[in-house]
Amino acid sequence: MTRFFINRILSTIPVLLGVTIFVFLLIQLIPGDPAKSILGGDATAEAVESLREEMGLNESMIVQYTSWMGQLLQGDLGYSHTLHTPITEELLPRFLNSMILTVASLLICVVLGVVLGLISALRKGSILDKASMGVALIGASMPVFWIALMLMWLFSLEMGLFPVSGMYNMRSPGGWMDLLHHLILPAFATATVSLAVIARLTRSTIIDTLQKDYVKYFQSFGLSKSKINIVHVLRNSLPPIINISGMQVGYLMGGALFSEVVFNWPGIGQALYVAVTSNDYPTIQAGILLIAITFVIVNLIVDLLNVWLSPKLQDSIKSNAG
Amino acid sequence: MIQAVRKKEAFLNVTNLMTKIHTPEGSMTVLDHINLSIDKGDIMAIVGESGSGKSMTIHSILQMITKNLLDSYAGEIEVEGKSILDIGEKEMQQIRGKKISLVAQNAMTSLDPSYRVGKQIIEIILDKTNLSKREAIEKALYLLEEMGIDEAKRVFQSYPHQLSGGLRQRVVIAMSLACDPDLIIADEPTSALDPSVQLQVLELFKKINRDLGTAILIITHDFGVVARIAESVAVMYAGQIVEQGKTSEVIYNPQHPYTNSLLNCIPDLDWIFLDGVGKKPLFQIKGEPPNLMNLSSGCRFANRCHMAKDICRSKLPELKKVHSPDLNHLVRCLLTERRESYAK
Ligand SMILES: Nc1ncnc2c1ncn2[C@@H]1O[C@H](COP(=O)(O)OP(=O)(O)O)[C@@H](O)[C@H]1O
Ligand code: SF4
Ligand SMILES: [Mg+2]
């Protein structure tokens, strides 16, 4: 099994390689001269030419790709000629900020979604079930930026419970508590839609699992209900819940962009917005690459979890290998 | 109504059990005056076509009919002389598994695919008894060995999907014995198995009964199974017991036309008595059982009975003693009643 896990992890290498080629070509194929667009319409031909030389644009594509890859492998995302800073310095902290927001909202939507779905399923048909599924339906159909604005209006402006914007309070020493305080509203705003999706899927999955013969069989032994619900029902409902949670990461990253704008969260969204409007190709390239790598890793984790959770799947892998 | 001559001290006594369930058309009486009595060490069978109320009977006994479905119980169910129809869920949990346990109907789907078989057995032992983990493991291994499993350790360590149907059936039976119940109830335990495996499983039940003294209530639609294992049998039709008695009595001296039809449904009786002869059940009696929602006032079997007379359509037969040496042989048929009165 360890061999399978190592193989599966190694198998992401060609995928990641493909991603870099794709991202590289994407930028190459965009019409227009990056050097010209950086310098503006009235730059001299010499100036454009010297910048092209500096950016390595006169080399062949292969050479450009290999040197870019060489940099990437050393953790260097390139140089932004618009901002005149190394991209790693500018973009990476922002990317991490975005990941903090995404991971926080993932935690919120998985934990609350599963709890809500579980309770609804166990009390199927009750007022609680109907109410929470009704709210979930509404939640799933609200745009993120609107939720963000509503949360901000209610909890920050009206009630004053949470800060309106940013990641840390400039006048305080910061720290975890301060970060958490700033994080809660944007994370909830980002999570709402996915929370509703996960709650609904969890509910229907749990209801299905409750009908399984083995659950009824354990019940016939007079074991405590809550024990059966956790040991057997929840355990066997995990794979679909994990799959949908993995799929939500994409939506959360997208939704985080909106929350970042509303709550002025210093994430990658703002940076990419600036990069796109100023034709900062290397930054765009690096941004897309970081996001794509995140997707590949999330997929890997979901796959590994699924195998880890399914003895049957493990056996079929073993028999395929042997 | 004459009731069966009952052993008052019997382990399980079911008296005039009536079970009603909710249906879209209203309340439906699925069990009508069921009387059963099972003592420690007995082997009893309930036989009947699909839909006759066999599963409802055992789900009533274990009170496992879901809240949404159940309308009401009436009558009496006693375990060791104690009425269980009005005890709370907590007390009922003490009876399930410990006093009476179920052998899963479908062994292929009744084990949790995510856990090793051994873990599932010890989960039950640890939850229901005071044994330590080590003792629970020993007990589980002992039970698996008792089930005639050669490599008990390997099976203990296996996931359900790694085992054959026959092995899984044995595991499920071992599970039912995890807390030394006085009675195990098996609802069609063999209908999904190959004939040769069916025979092995029936032999296993006999061995359990012999070695551990566990009483067995086996539910089946196949008189072949009844003949092979049960000491006594109750024949069910449309929610009622229509004939009941010692197995040999009922098989060799059947009184109810329905029992007769069921017996005729085993074309090759040899399989009952000779190992290795495949059975070919031809389970078909002409016609359909009546709709329990609108029953006539007559015999429930009348529209399918080749011996039906006019009176059968207006008078409901009661369960009465048959004129025979077996004092517990009862039948619900007007024809027999008349024969009885002629005999007097
Ligand atoms: N879940 C259910 N919903 C509605 N009716 C049911 C349900 N289960 C059983 N019944 C009805 O109860 C009667 C007895 O069913 P059952 O005990 O399952 O029969 P058997 O086990 O003998 O095949 C049948 O008429 C059947 O239609
Ligand atoms: S009472 Fe009449 S209809 Fe019913 S089984 Fe007897 S003979 Fe047949
Ligand atoms: Mg049944």
TrEMBL record, chain A:
Task: Name the CDD domains on file.
Answer: TM_PBP2
Which InterPro entries does this one have?
A: BPD_transp_1_N, MetI-like, MetI-like_sf
Entry membrane topology: Multi-pass membrane protein
Q: Which domain of life is it from?
A: Bacteria
- Compartments reported by the entry: Cell membrane
Membrane-traversing stretches: 12-30, 99-122, 134-155, 179-202, 249-268, 288-309
Q: Which Pfam families match?
A: BPD_transp_1, BPD_transp_1_N
Task: Give start and end of each ABC transmembrane type-1 domain.
Answer: 95-302
Q: Write out the similarity annotation.
A: Belongs to the binding-protein-dependent transport system permease family.
Q: What is this protein identified as?
A: ABC transporter permease
Q: Which organism is it from?
A: Cytobacillus stercorigallinarum
Q: What is the lineage of its organism?
A: Bacteria, Bacillati, Bacillota, Bacilli, Bacillales
UniProtKB/TrEMBL annotation, chain B:
One Pfam family hit: ABC_tran
The answer, when asked if Disulfide bond is one of the entry's keywords, is no
Q: Where is the ABC transporter domain?
A: 12-263
Major place of localization?
A: membrane
Its domain of life?
Answer: Bacteria
Q: Which residues form the signal peptide?
A: none
Q: Does the keyword Ribosomal protein apply?
A: no
Family matches, as CDD domains: ABC_NikE_OppD_transporters
Keywords, A to Z, come to: ATP-binding, Cell membrane, Membrane, Nucleotide-binding, Transport
Query: Which InterPro entries does this entry report, sorted A to Z?
Result: AAA+_ATPase, ABC_Ni/Peptide_Import, ABC_transporter-like_ATP-bd, Oligopep_ABC_C, P-loop_NTPase
Q: Where in the cell is it found?
A: Cell membrane
Q: Which molecular-function annotations from GO does this UniProt entry contain?
A: ATP binding
Give the record's membrane topology.
Answer: Peripheral membrane protein
Concerning PANTHER family, the annotation shows: DIPEPTIDE TRANSPORT ATP-BINDING PROTEIN DPPD, OLIGOPEPTIDE TRANSPORT ATP-BINDING PROTEIN APPD
- Identify its protein family: Belongs to the ABC transporter superfamily.
Q: Know the name of this protein?
A: ABC transporter ATP-binding protein
